[in-house]
Amino acid sequence: MTYALVFTPGYERVEKRFLRRHPELRRLYRKTLRLLEADPFHPSLRLHPLQGRLAGLHSASINLSYRITLELLIENGQILPINVGDHDAVY
Questions:
Q1: 88 vs 71: CA distance, rounded Å
Q2: Among 6, 20, 58, 76, which residue's CB has the most CB atoms within a 10 Å radius?
Q3: Three-state SS at 69
Q4: 50-59: string of b/e by CB count within 10 Å (b at 16+)?
Q5: 60 has which bridge partners?
């Protein structure tokens, strides 16, 4: 099953700012998005549910320093990215 990434206008602004600050991560970020669409449970994404104030969201890794928080709607086959950035910015 493939999943559909659904980008909100708010996320697109966050994404644009992130890529402007970290142009060296553009290729790896795009690769992470493609992998999320193909298989969000792929081990290299290190997908895990969040707790506390971010309960209900998941986190996927771009690399060891940067993450994407997302809402994973399994029943609809949709993934809604919420935020992207380093550990402190996302959590």
A1: 19
A2: 58
A3: strand
A4: beeeeeebbb
A5: 68
Domain extent for 8: 4-85
pTM for the model stands at 0.89
CATH number at residue 78: 3.30.2310.20
Tokens of 59: 């986190």
Report whether 32 contacts 79 (CB < 8 A).
Answer: no
Strand pairing of 78-86 and 66-73?
A: antiparallel
Region 35-57 average pLDDT: 93
14 within domain boundaries: yes
Q: Does residue 52 sit in helix, strand or coil?
A: helix
Provide mean pLDDT across the span 63-88: 89
Closest CA relative to residue 79, chosen from 5, 1, 2 = 5
User: Does the pLDDT at position 44 exceed 80?
Assistant: yes
